[in-house]
Amino acid sequence: MSLNDRQLKHIKLWQASGFSQTVYCQKNGLNKKTFSGWFSNYQALSKSTIPSLIAIDVTPSITIPLKTSEPLRLRLVNGLLLELPSTSSPRWLAELLQCLD
């Protein structure tokens, strides 16, 4: 299911070309069904990648107290939202983020 450099290069060139897959394949002497298979593999590999996490330091605010009724919200790079109770332990949160890394 992996892609070689040639296949990946063609996928990137096709995406930048603005052509349909059919036209791109005709212009580059590629079999349309074969190219579609490469692209399907590319999409599957793209979906299976682990989202990147960014390291942050969490320090409690002295000037602005947390409202205990407001949940703690973390927006991940892929757009997912992780919502936790504001009473969550910072140590537990750090362990959770390490598990996701």
Explain how this protein is built.
There is one protein chain. With 101 residues, the chain is mainly alpha-helical. The protein folds into 2 domains: 5-47; 51-101, no CATH class. 48% of the residues lie in helices and 8% in strands. The two termini are 24 Å apart. The relative contact order is 0.11.
Short description:
This protein is mainly α and 101 residues long. It contains 4 helices and 2 strands, in the order H-H-H-E-E-H. The chain is 48% helix and 8% strand.
| Largest sheet geometry | 2 strands, antiparallel
The tally of domains stands at: 2
Derived from helix and strand composition plus strand pairing, the structural class reads mainly alpha
| Strand/helix succession | HHHEEH
- Let me know the average pLDDT: 80
Shape: elongated
The radius of gyration over CA amounts to: 22 Å
How many helical elements?
4
N-end to C-end Cα span = 24 Å
**Number of E strands:** 2
The percent of residues in helical segments reads 40-55%
Poorly predicted tracts of residues: none
Oligomer: single chain
Strand order of the largest sheet: 1-2
Q: How much strand content do the residues show?
A: 5-15%
Throw out a few tags for this protein:
about 100 residues; mainly alpha; two-stranded antiparallel sheet; 4 helices; 2 strands
How are the SSEs ordered, and which strands pair?
Elements: H1 5-17, H2 21-28, H3 32-47, E1 72-75, E2 81-84, H4 90-100
Antiparallel strand pairs: 1-2
